[in-house]
Design a protein that fits this description.
single chain; 155 residues; alpha/beta; 6 helices; 5 strands; 13% strand
Length: 155
């Protein structure tokens, strides 16, 4: 990226550290039905904004009757779904959290590692496998490794 920016003769601003938006300060109310579900039932939050095949993979790591999907669009009709941002405001009350291993998801679930399952997906400009400590050469292995991680975490 930097090489391209330099070739475009653009000035690069380099912040002193990681810049994070303080999501916890957003006063967006949780939908009443979702709040009731989190308060009264063991709930697995599957949080993802990616393609449907990735969402299906994430959902395969949880009991179907416990899944609530948090996503900007409804992609799987069989599950309860909410468009809610920021999803990290829901994590405290969730029994389990399943996300991809993207930077933001990993940062936002840092306080909930004991109940978080991160599933890495192939990306052009992000190495999700490295982020969780695995290097996988093929996309086919992606599913196998994710399932193995889930098995280990659920023991």
């Amino acid at each position: 990226h930097e090489e391209w920016i330099n070739s475009a003769h653009s000035e690069i601003f380099r912040p002193a550290g990681i810049i994070r938006f303080p999501f916890e300060e957003l006063a967006i109310p949780v939908p009443a039905r979702l709040q009731k579900r989190l308060d009264e039932q063991e709930t697995t939050l599957v949080v993802h904004s990616g393609p449907v095949h990735e969402l299906e993979e994430l959902c395969s790591h949880a009991k179907a009757d416990q899944i609530v999907i948090i996503s900007p669009r409804r992609q799987l009709a069989d599950f309860e779904w909410y468009e809610y941002f920021p999803a990290c405001r829901l994590y405290e009350k969730a029994a389990k959290i399943i996300t991809a291993a993207g930077y933001n998801s990993m940062a936002e679930t840092a306080l909930y590692r004991e109940k978080h399952l991160a599933v890495p997906f192939s990306r052009n400009y992000d190495d999700q496998f490295a982020r969780i400590g695995f290097e996988i050469p093929t996309q086919t292995a992606n599913v196998q490794v994710a399932r193995k991680i889930a098995e280990l975490l659920c023991q």
